[in-house]
Specification:
Bound molecules: zinc ion
Number of strands: 8
Number of domains: 3
Distance between the termini: 91 Å
Helix content: 40-55%
Shape: elongated
Strand content: 15-25%
Oligomer: single chain
CATH superfamily of the largest domain: Tetratricopeptide repeat domain
């Protein structure tokens, strides 16, 4: 009697547990279907920005995503010029479905288009490896470095002569215990020397930590791969051209 009631409790617990898990699963399935449909409709209308948002919502649903989503999202990302992200989802689709996926041919064609874009990017010197336009670093004005007052001489260009302790003379005691005065050969009796850090220029160059010495930063604009025209200072950015 006791034995069977314990079994009953365990059985009903599993039932509740299964029902709860299954219920959540159904809700997620509905969400996925809804966002997938929404995304496809936006794509059909050519609204790739909107489609992108629907896919992002889809990605927040904790569930196994439909493999076709990888293809559609890759296509959307391609249209939005996000070629690296597009490539990632192409690879994900191929990894999940191999050569047997229903979108296999379409994915291959898309992959070729993405590779063409990467070739354009690679041969362009005005964008980064993802195709975003480079712009002059505002911090260093494209110089890659910043001038700052010399830390060693505090901008004076001179430092004290340590050989003579700024006296300009060297005092030695000879064998007869007499003091001998000799002019300091290091500073030529001046008591100070040219700053060894800045060479007397009073300033020193620091590598710009915003652009890490490159003189350019990556903007959020998609590069059209054409050389800068209106702005002469950006022409100076690329002296090799
Ligand atoms: Zn000296
Ligand atoms: Zn100095
Ligand atoms: Zn800089
Ligand atoms: Zn470019």
């Amino acid at each position: 009697m006791i034995h069977s009631s314990v079994r009953y409790v365990i059985f009903s617990f599993l039932l509740v547990y299964n029902f709860a898990a299954h219920g959540q699963q159904t809700i997620n399935d509905h969400k996925i279907a809804h966002y997938m449909k929404e995304a496809k409709e936006h794509m059909d209308a050519g609204n790739y920005e909107e489609a992108n948002l629907s896919f992002r919502k889809l990605l927040t649903v904790q569930n196994i995503l439909p493999t076709e989503m990888c293809y559609y999202f890759a296509e959307t990302l391609y249209q939005l010029h996000q070629y690296q992200n597009s490539k990632n989802f192409i690879n994900k689709y191929l990894k999940l479905t191999g050569t047997s996926g229903p979108y296999y041919q379409k994915v291959l064609a898309l992959n070729e288009l993405v590779d063409e874009k990467f070739n354009e990017i690679k041969s362009c010197q005005f964008c980064d490896e993802k195709g975003y336009r480079l712009q002059e670093c505002e911090t260093c004005h494209g110089e890659g470095h910043l001038l700052q007052t010399c830390h060693h001489c505090k901008g004076k260009g001179l430092t004290a002569c340590t050989a003579c302790g700024t006296k300009g003379v060297k005092i030695t005691v000879n064998a007869f215990k007499e003091k001998e005065y000799k002019s300091c050969p290091v500073c030529n009796s001046k008591g100070f020397i040219t700053c060894p850090v800045c060479g007397g220029k009073t300033t020193e160059e620091l590598v710009c930590n915003v652009c890490r010495g490159k003189g350019t930063n990556i903007s959020n604009k998609i590069c059209d791969h054409s050389p800068p025209t209106s702005n002469t200072s950006s022409m100076d950015l690329f002296p090799d051209n």
